[in-house]
Amino acid sequence: MTFINKQYQLKYLERQIQRFGAETLNDQELMYVVLQTFCSDKLAQEISEIYFAENYNLSQMNKLTRSDWQLYFKSEAKSLKMEAICELIKRTNQSPQLILGKICSSKMVGEYLQMKMSSYHQEVLYGVFLDTQNQIIYEKEIFKGTLNQATVHPREIFKIAIQYSAARVIIAHNHPSGHTEPSQNDHNMTKRLVKSGEILGIELLDHLVIGQDDYFSFREQQFI
To answer: For the chain, what is the domain count?
Structure first.
């Protein structure tokens, strides 16, 4: 957005919101209006212009750290305010918790966890535990950190499944890069969990890789 007249820009946008709703503003105008509530008009304009010169949409805000915001604002107090705003947006965008007892599918779990995990800055392993009718019994974040066969042992997953008498398990992990293409390690881990589940009589129903805007399902792609 090019600011035609700084003196009247905010008033013009406020009138537009009043008449037609905030949804009629583009991303940069919306960011400017929010920033202007705790910044000078000049600073709000500068930051919104710099941000969109470096990022293609508002979703990238979830990737920015406190240090990043301090580079924009040159003020810790304003950076903390922006960090709080981003956290508020993140929480309102998250889907409700999966409902216990509800019959679920890979698509339902994938879409839920994509909203929940897409902004995570490190890898997280998540488990959804089901009964014989694919009804949800329990869900839990199992592990946080770099995921490999040394750190993610099947016993940590199936111990929870046994504890809750689960017949089936869906596991998921995110790729902080945003890409959903599974790595060779992801394939190896899936095969290991399938074999372990066969021994215990607990089926690995799916393994999901969560990205920025989508998810990858090993079952939908017929790897399971």
So the answer is: 2
